[in-house]
Amino acid sequence: MTQPDIDLTSSVFKTVIEKTHRSEIKSTDFNRYTWNRRDLFLESLGEFVGNINNSNVIINAVFTTLNPQRLPEQIKIYGADRTPEERVDAIKFLNDLSNYYPYVLTWKVSKAAHLHGADVYLDNFSNEEVSVAWNELCAHHNVKVYPHGDSCNAFISAADLITRYIDEYLYARNLHLDEESINNALESCQCSNMRVFYVGHPELDQIVPLSKQKIDFREYYPKPMVFIIRKGLLEKAEIAMIENSPTWHRILNYASEINGAVKFIDFQKDSQYLKPGDTLIFYDKDGEDKARYIQSMGYDVDIKSISEFR
Predict the structure, then answer these.
(1) In degrees, to the nearest 5, what angle opens at C-alpha 200 toward C-alphas 82 and 204?
(2) Is 232 left (phi over 0), alpha (psi -120 to 50) or beta?
(3) Rounded to an integer, what distance in angstroms lies between the CA atom of residue 33 and that of residue 46?
(4) Closest by CA position to 97, among listed 123, 63, 67, 120
(5) Where are the domains of the chain?
(6) How many helices (H) and strands (E) in the chain?
(7) How far is it, in rounded angstroms, from Cα 92 to Cα 87?
């Protein structure tokens, strides 16, 4: 699988790339520099979608809507293993579904297209509960989950930008979320190599969580991973400070170059995720001591100072 060869001719794209200093950008980056010009935002995203189409990449769009009147007894979730069955209304379920939708839409496309053995790149998702869709996707494909994937993986970044374009197009024209509207959005960019799929009522029993069992990401993170050792001085604000720093963008570019992903290390949980070839990035002497201590335990990881990314 090769990355699409896309000519980013838009002045907006050039501005965003220059401002972020990143090789992969996401829709929120776009929004940050065009928030007061929604027409320019939509036009630039549309240009990107047109370039995607010209690079012979198939665009598969998936959407979900639910009719509460067809769910008089609400939606059944859980019920597998020893987890008791619960019922939730359509709105609550749609909100929860959005947290793991990246793998649901991929599962839907792969089934509809009868795909097997594909490389699947998923942006990190927050709801980690297992469903039939997840089990089937992993059984038939090589699944990789990328933390910060929309900022360090070309495919995930492209999917994020295309999704945002469709959302902005529908909003600007006050259109409903349905197949016709999505087709109109894509056709307005002269897209011809596209498919639109619905996932919802017919697949409910396959996309609801089976139990409260959590997905073990250990075998799904890409190889290699880049783990950041925080200083721990600014508590919760520290992550925001790091993610808005110039060095953060360079770390993301490094992860993109090695086809990896970036995660802030959790010493209690991430020991099981460390693999040969992973990188630990430290900020100070204390972080270096921790990284070398981890190495001394036999973990075959590389160590880099944040100074290498300045």
Answers:
(1) 20
(2) left
(3) 16
(4) 63
(5) 1-219, 221-309
(6) 13, 12
(7) 10
The residue ranges of DSSP E strands in the chain, in sequence order, are 59-63, 75-77, 86-88, 119-123, 129-131, 142-146, 194-198, 209-214, 225-228, 261-264, 279-282, 302-305
Beta strand pairing status for 209-214 and 129-131? antiparallel
Residue 303 pairs with which residues in a beta bridge? 280
Which residue has better confidence, 278 or 128? Answer: 278
Q: Tens digits of per-residue pLDDT, 121-160? A: 999 998 788 999 999 999 999 999 999 999 999 999 999 9
Cα end-to-end span (Å), the chain: 32
Q: Cα–Cα distance between 19 and 262 in angstroms, integer?
A: 20
Residue 171: how many other CB atoms lie within 10 Å: 11
CA-wise closest residue to 226 among 293, 169, 282: 282
CA dihedral 149, 150, 151, 157 (to 10 degrees): 120
In this prediction the pTM is 0.91
Q: Calculate the alpha carbon distances from 201 to 13, 63, 132, 206, 274 in Å.
A: 38, 12, 15, 10, 40
